[in-house]
Amino acid sequence: MVIINTIADTRESILWAKQQGKKVVLIPTMGFLHDGHLSMVKAARRQDNGDKEILVVMSIFVNPLQFGPNEDYEKYPRDLTRDASLAEEAGVDLLFAPSVKEMYPAGGSLTAVQVSRITEVLCGASRPGHFEGVATVVTKLFNIVQPHEAYFGQKDYQQVAVIRQMVKDLNMPITIRSFPTVRESDGLALSSRNAYLSSEERQQAPILYRALQEASARITGGEISPDRIKAAIKQRISEESNGKIDYVEIYRADDLSEVEQITVSIVIALAVHFGTTRLIDNIIVEV
Ligand code: AMP
């Protein structure tokens, strides 16, 4: 595995790989790697059965543009040495780890990519500007790496929807693939932010996924009211934890539009604060 910090060297390395006929897969991350990130590396590696017909590129960049002024940009966990060894072990070929200066030499970006409607709900409503930061940095990464395929996790369901919409609307010649959420054995979705949780918060946090699973079972059992489902999830979380609910919402799984009755496949998505840590999770219920 090579670790590259500059855009110019990354481009050169990727051009060379493409000239060898390799397919380029990009896995964008903010680092502090866990099995959620690494499961996507392994999925990419499995495509070529280890034959190195694919160049697996991972980016590690904590993107200041996608954090609000009172969010955790400064304290977001970073450990490039640890990440590099995990990435190499999982099968990354090229680790692109640029500095903020390399990505934003002027300190920011005068140009932004804005996806409307689907960014106005869920995390987009709670974190103004977040998805503009995400869409802008992902566009930059796509232009730098020019991958054939890019991989994203279902854990950030709205993020995948935003990227798919952007790629479609702007005719970006990239196939987006999304991968299931990897969880701890007690159901808690892996997240770099889990490192912030106190031991008590960590014990309580699995209620999020349990509440989602119970909701899923109620829908499968015939419940069609989004309001009743949302109320039941909120009640469960409030009874079982000190978590402060940011949102619990139900939208159509395919386009994040409103549903009046659960007669189509839906996503139930939630965000809950445990102390200063904001956790998100979701479940798809196929109807
Ligand atoms: P992050 O480093 O948190 O920005 O995440 C980088 C990528 O990994 C995103 O596409 C996430 O959706 C994905 N990801 C994060 N956590 C998980 C998880 N628990 N399971 C699967 N994918 C994940």
Keywords, please?
Rossmann fold; six-stranded parallel β-sheet; binds adenosine monophosphate; Pantoate--beta-alanine Ligase, Chain: A,domain 2; alpha/beta; 287 residues; three-stranded antiparallel β-sheet
Structural overview:
With 287 residues, the chain is of the alpha/beta class. The chain has 10 helices and 9 strands. It has helices at residues 7-19, 35-47, 80-90, 100-103, 122-126, 130-145, 157-169, 199-204, 207-220, 226-240, and strands at 2-4, 23-29, 54-60, 94-96, 149-153, 175-179, 244-252, 266-274, 277-285. Helix 6 (130-145) crosses helix 7 and helix 9 runs antiparallel to helix 10. The longest helix has 16 residues, at 130-145. Adenosine monophosphate is lined by residues 29-30, 36-37, 152-153, 155-156, 179, 181-182, 189-192.
Brief synopsis:
With 287 residues, the chain is of the alpha/beta class. The chain is built from 10 helices and 9 strands.
What is the secondary structure topology, with strand pairs?
Layout: E1 2-4, H1 7-19, E2 23-29, H2 35-47, E3 54-60, H3 80-90, E4 94-96, H4 100-103, H5 122-126, H6 130-145, E5 149-153, H7 157-169, E6 175-179, H8 199-204, H9 207-220, H10 226-240, E7 244-252, E8 266-274, E9 277-285
Parallel strand pairs: 1-4, 2-3, 2-5, 3-4, 5-6
Antiparallel strand pairs: 7-8, 8-9
Adenosine monophosphate (AMP) binds at residues 29-30, 36-37, 152-153, 155-156, 179, 181-182, 189-192.
